[in-house]
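Quick one, T. Sequence first:
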Amino acid sequence: MHELSLAQAIADTVAKHADGAPVERVTVRIGHFRQVVPDSLAFSFELLTEGGPLEACELAIEHVPAVIFCANCGSEARLDWPVFQCRACDSSDVKLVSGEEFLVVSIDLLEAPHGPVPPPR
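C-alpha cells:
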C-alpha cells in the first residue's frame, strides 16, 4: 500500500511548513494516473497523525482527471484508461495535459482563538 508512504510524505511536508503552528486542513491535488486510492490515503493520514500535532488536521483531496491534447486536430479529451490516442481523429500525436499531479496545494493554519498573543512585558 503506497498510500501509507504518500501520507507520510504529506504529513512531513505539512509539519515542516507549519513550523509548530496548529493545522486545520491540508489540501492535496492528485492526478488520475497516480493510482492513489483516496480512502486509503485518508485512512493512512489519519493513522499517522493520530496522537500527534497534526491529529486535528483534515486531509482534503482534489482529484485531477487525465486529459490529453491532440497536436493533429487540436481537441482535448479526458481519459479513463491509459490509451493515448485522440478520440476525434485517431492520431497518436497527443500530449498529456493533466493527470500526473501529486501536490500539496495549501496548508490552512488555525488562528489563535483570541487574536494575536500580546508580547510579554
